[in-house]
């Protein structure tokens, strides 16, 4: 429901301006002599009474005392300043300047300085102050107080220095204000000087000065000096002194010290009052001290102080910060009297705890009860509307803030920027940001964070650089926002730039370090990621998980497993996310035994095997060649999501079981789970690897026509591969020509592979030329084209390609295969003899060649050094008869090794499962699942 910001509580009734302009007119009706005397006898309690008092003095000016007018103006200024009515103060100021009855101009000018300061107009206060020919200590204190009220602590100290230079002697009020300014600035050095001055002038015996000194030392993180001063204070038995040091420690977040002092105060026999309990309750706002806060609550229930509004407000804040909103509501509802702090505390609590609907309802309730929203309640509402993402409400709350002149407040503006960012309206946020004349750190952080969160990563980076040019200090929040932008830009140079900035500014916490490790991993800078990871002094679970994931995602699965083992050795137990990262590494390594161990850990730790966990298990078992185990996991999940269906469809497709993928896809649609781009990619891949041409064409048409999904390059690649495998090369080429986007490298590679298998030299030459034109810096492309030219007998072309490769410094990736035997991975490279059982392996390989030569006339000794042959021979040596042999290879299996594997599966009666760079090969009884096309 939209918020009716236009129908809020009516403004407070004030006396109209013309009263000041025409005092003697009929704007104020004359009152009887008795009533006039009654008003003058007692101090005016309201602004209206103050104006009536001034009017009576004007009527009786002949018989009035000399200073009656001064007192009347003074009372009006006091009432105006408490209502923060700047316009009325200016009208009173104008009337004073025109008045003939003012006696003590210094007195009234001081009152004007004080009134302007309380209303937040230091500029107007200074104008009055600068024009004064005579200034008392009260005038100086009023001007210093004006700066303090407006948070201008440095200006207050400068004024104090000028005052001393002119020989004006400070009083207790002066020292109280200046010591507070030193505390707010955390300027201990100057605070000590002021301490010395106060001691010299004999003001330490003043309770207010000594209490201000306590506060200054605590805020400057000098607890020892604060306690030393407290110990020697003559008023230590006074509750005010105790309240001062307890509240100082509480405000500085030193909870343990504050609570210890509270207990000492009770032991000393000093009876706590309202302010004591407010300070102690504030110290208990951290969730770890909630129990003590509840004990205080129970104690207060038995005392009269429970009815005190300030204590009740502190209890509300205590419970809201601990997330106990029911308790906060109970206290709120029991209060007979509520002020703006009460309402704002509850509102802020709802916002902090994500209860935005309740915040909205409380705001409406406040309006109904006639409470006019102030700046703080509007800030809570702005934050609420932002989190709800309702643009209509956002515009309404902004309009209300403008109508009530709250949008000039920097805090309100910053919250409005955040609100528009959360509503995805960065153009509105930018417009508001540009209108802020004096932007602070929060303004810049908010707009940069907004751009980063809404996907405008380059804009966020540009603004970050601009903020640095303007001298905006970086902190963890700002760096976190810009790192978020960097994670999407995927530019390692930018990440290094931000990293350098962090080092320069000394901005390091565990969250930022973890983000940095993750970013370097995403950008493929695994060396940098490892270096930052090693420099983290206290690594948490997130640190280890990110590093495992980085290594797995960058093809360093073996190293990922090693890091995971190191994590376990440090005593950190993995969570489901860490185990998912490890599953990814296991999938790359095809280490079935390790994958089963992780599956067992997931079950023992009670993780629910659904969602990402279950689909990752399906992928892992499939990648390890254990298709039956993949299906067991799939079948055990009662409610399958789209990712789970897609994983199983893809698993069947990888293993050449295209018809099973087709059956599963139709079953998925029948169960009202609708496919997306990835699902169609999985089924098209399955169709291409099983030569299901008609089915593949039907799925491609369905994707475009029925589901209105625009094909990706990967979908086009699958279709070209499908036509190529079925020897429909003309149709494949026609399909490429009719594509809505330019064909990429993968498409031309598919076509070259099909032309080689089906001996289409002309089309293969054309595709080879296109491939090298598109990407001439890839080793893989040059090797593929070179092999095609060699197959066609085009040796001159082969020579040209190899010469270009030498000129560019290209080297073909060495073949590498590995096999898992008894929970250990054994890696073999081409002509490898580094294995400790190398002699036995080559003897076994010779034995195999003898059998194949005798039975099939196979002559393959010249390829004995190929890595997959070494792995297969070792598998035959070390595994029992009948056990499948699972081998993983980093490159495509060569033609000769493919023949070798088929013959071994036939004569040694073993199932051999080889996962190469293209697909899975299931060799059994002399045939392969790929149909000799890979």
Automatic annotation (TrEMBL):
Residues 860-934 form the DYW domain. One of its GO terms (biological process) is RNA modification. PPR repeats lie at residues 136-170, 238-272, 308-338, 339-373, 440-474, 540-574, 641-675. Signal peptide: none annotated. Pfam families: DYW_deaminase (PF14432), E_motif (PF20431), Eplus_motif (PF20430), PPR (PF01535), PPR_2 (PF13041). The keyword Repeat applies. One of its GO terms (molecular function) is RNA binding. The lineage of its organism: Eukaryota, Viridiplantae, Streptophyta, Embryophyta, Tracheophyta. InterPro entries: DYW_dom, E2_motif, E_motif, PPR_At4g14850-like_plant, PPR_rpt, TPR-like_helical_dom_sf. Belongs to the PPR family. PCMP-H subfamily. Keywords: Repeat. This is DYW domain-containing protein.
């Amino acid at each position: 429901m939209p918020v009716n910001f236009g129908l809020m509580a009516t403004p407070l009734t004030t006396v109209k301006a013309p009263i000041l302009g025409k005092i003697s007119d009929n704007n104020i009706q004359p009152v009887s002599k008795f009533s006039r005397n009654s008003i003058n006898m007692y101090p005016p309690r309201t602004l209206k009474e103050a104006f009536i008092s001034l009017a009576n003095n004007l009527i009786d000016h002949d018989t009035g005392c000399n200073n009656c007018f001064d007192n009347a103006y003074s009372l009006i200024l006091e009432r105006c300043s408490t209502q923060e009515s700047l316009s009325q103060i200016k009208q009173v100021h104008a009337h004073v300047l025109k008045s003939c009855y003012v006696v003590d101009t210094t007195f009234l000018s001081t009152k004007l300085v004080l009134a302007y300061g309380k209303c937040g107009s230091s500029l107007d206060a200074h104008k009055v102050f600068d024009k004064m020919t005579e200034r008392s200590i009260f005038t100086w204190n009023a001007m210093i107080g004006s700066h303090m009220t407006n948070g201008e602590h440095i200006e207050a100290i400068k004024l104090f220095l000028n005052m001393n230079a002119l020989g004006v002697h400070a009083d207790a009020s002066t020292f109280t204000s200046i010591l507070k300014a030193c505390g707010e600035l955390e300027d201990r050095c100057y605070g000590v000087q002021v301490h010395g001055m106060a001691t010299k002038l004999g003001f330490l015996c003043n309770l207010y000065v000594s209490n201000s000194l306590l506060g200054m030392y605590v805020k400057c993180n000098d607890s020892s000096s604060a306690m030393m001063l407290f110990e020697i204070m003559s008023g230590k038995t006074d509750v005010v002194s105790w309240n001062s040091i307890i509240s100082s420690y509480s405000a500085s977040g030193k909870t343990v010290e504050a609570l210890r002092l509270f207990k000492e105060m009770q032991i000393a026999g000093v009876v706590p009052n309202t302010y004591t309990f407010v300070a102690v309750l504030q110290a208990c706002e951290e969730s770890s001290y909630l129990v003590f806060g509840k004990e205080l609550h129970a104690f207060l229930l038995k005392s009269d102080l429970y009815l005190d509004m300030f204590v009740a407000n502190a209890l509300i804040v205590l419970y809201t910060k601990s997330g106990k909103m029911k308790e906060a509501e109970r206290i709120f509802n029991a209060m007979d009297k509520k002020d703006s702090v009460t309402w704002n505390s509850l509102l802020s609590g709802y916002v902090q705890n994500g209860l935005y609907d309740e915040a909205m309802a409380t705001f409406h309730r406040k309006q109904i009860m006639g409470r006019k929203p102030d700046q703080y309640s509007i800030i809570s509402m702005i934050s609420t509307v932002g989190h709800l993402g309702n643009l209509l409400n956002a515009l309404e709350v902004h309009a209300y803030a403008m109508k009530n002149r709250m949008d000039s407040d920097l805090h309100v503006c910053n919250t409005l920027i955040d609100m528009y960012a959360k509503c995805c309206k960065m153009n509105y946020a930018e417009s508001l940001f540009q209108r802020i004349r004096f932007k602070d750190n929060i303004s810049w952080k908010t707009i940069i964070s907004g751009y980063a969160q809404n996907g405008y990563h380059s804009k966020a980076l540009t603004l970050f650089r601009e903020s640095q040019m303007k001298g905006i200090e970086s902190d963890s929040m700002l760096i976190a926002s810009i790192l978020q932008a960097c994670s999407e830009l995927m530019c390692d140079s930018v990440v290094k730039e931000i990293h350098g900035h962090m080092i320069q500014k000394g901005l390091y916490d565990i969250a930022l370090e973890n983000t940095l490790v993750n970013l370097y991993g995403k950008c493929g800078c695994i060396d940098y990621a490892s270096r930052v990871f090693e420099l983290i002094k206290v690594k948490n679970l997130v640190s280890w998980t990110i590093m495992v994931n980085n290594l797995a995602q960058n093809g360093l699965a073996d190293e990922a497993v090693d890091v995971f083992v190191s994590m376990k050795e440090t005593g950190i137990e993995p969570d489901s996310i860490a185990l998912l990262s490890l599953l990814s590494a296991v999938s790359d390594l095809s280490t079935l035994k390790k994958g089963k161990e992780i599956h067992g850990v997931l079950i023992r730790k009670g993780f629910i095997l659904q969602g990402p966990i279950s689909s990752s298990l399906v992928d892992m078992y499939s990648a390890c060649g254990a298709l039956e185990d993949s299906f067991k996991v799939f079948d055990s999940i009662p409610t399958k999501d789209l990712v789970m269906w897609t994983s199983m469809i893809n698993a069947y497709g990888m293993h050449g079981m295209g018809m099973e993928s087709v059956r599963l896809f139709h079953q998925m649609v029948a169960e009202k789970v609708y496919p997306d781009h990835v699902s169609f990619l999985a089924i098209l891949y399955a169709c291409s690897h099983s030569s299901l041409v008609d089915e593949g064409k039907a799925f491609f048409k369905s994707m475009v026509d029925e589901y209105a999904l625009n094909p990706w390059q990967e979908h086009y690649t699958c279709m070209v591969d499908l036509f190529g495998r079925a020897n429909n090369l003309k149709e494949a080429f026609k399909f490429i020509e009719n594509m809505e986007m330019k064909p990429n490298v993968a498409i031309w590679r598919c076509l070259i592979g099909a032309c080689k298998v089906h001996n289409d030299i002309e089309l293969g030459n054309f595709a080879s030329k296109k491939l090298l034109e598109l990407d001439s810096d890839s080793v893989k492309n040059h090797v593929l084209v070179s092999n095609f030219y060699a197959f066609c007998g085009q040796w001159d072309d082969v020579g040209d390609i190899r010469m270009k490769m030498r000129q560019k410094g290209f080297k073909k990736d060495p073949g590498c295969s590995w096999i898992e035997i008894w929970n250990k991975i054994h890696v073999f490279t081409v002509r490898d003899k580094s294995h400790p059982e190398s002699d036995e392996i080559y003897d076994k390989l010779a034995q195999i060649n003898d059998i194949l030569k005798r039975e099939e006339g196979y002559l393959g000794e010249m390829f004995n050094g190929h890595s997959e042959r070494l792995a297969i021979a070792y598998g035959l040596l070390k595994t029992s008869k009948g056990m499948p042999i699972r081998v993983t290879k980093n490159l495509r299996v060569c033609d000769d090794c493919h023949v070798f594997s088929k013959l071994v599966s036939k004569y040694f009666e073993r199932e051999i499962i080889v996962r190469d760079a293209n697909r899975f090969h299931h060799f059994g009884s002399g045939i392969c699942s790929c149909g000799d096309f890979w």
